[in-house]
Amino acid sequence: MSLVLDPAAQDLLFREARTANTFTDEPVTEEQVQAIYDLVKYGPTAFNQTPLRITLVRSAEARERLVRHMAEGNQAKTATAPLVAILSADNEFHEELPSLFPAFPQAKDVFFSERAARENAAGMNAALQAAYFIVGIRAAGLAAGPMTGFDFEGVRKEFLDDDHTPLMVVNIGKPGADAWYPRSPRLDFEQVVTTV
Q1: pTM for the whole thing?
Q2: What is the mean pLDDT of residues 49-74?
Q3: Count of CB atoms within 10 A of residue 145's CB?
């Protein structure tokens, strides 16, 4: 069985997708980010949870504050990417559930009254949404450089609050010169899939 998605779109979204390490200086507009979000917001999550929060780092002052918290190998590319996004999980996402999941508005209190349950669900579903966001960046014809090499607590204190848990920092823009490392291997189907 073949995929329904056009092969060129398959390449754009998956086969040619790699973490970008350099970018041109072409700006990423607010309209592009809005279009990305307007596409990826429809990706499925449990109970239609929407815990992902996106902090766009645009000002030079905010960029300097962020770069201080990045691992040494991630500082230069974060300093020069046209746009940087801090993706985090909102651990109080459950407050929106009555309107986001009208089929079972009680889910807010039945499943998520305890903070530990919310943090677990927020982390898992925001990570899923972050993956959609990265694919959306590709769909917009841009490159993404997602990174977890940073001081998580420092970024949280600098840009977020106690109700938000940082997940990753994503550099966004048009790929620059020598943007890609060579394609790394992937596991074969048989190594990943088990039928029971």
Answers
A1: 0.95
A2: 97
A3: 24
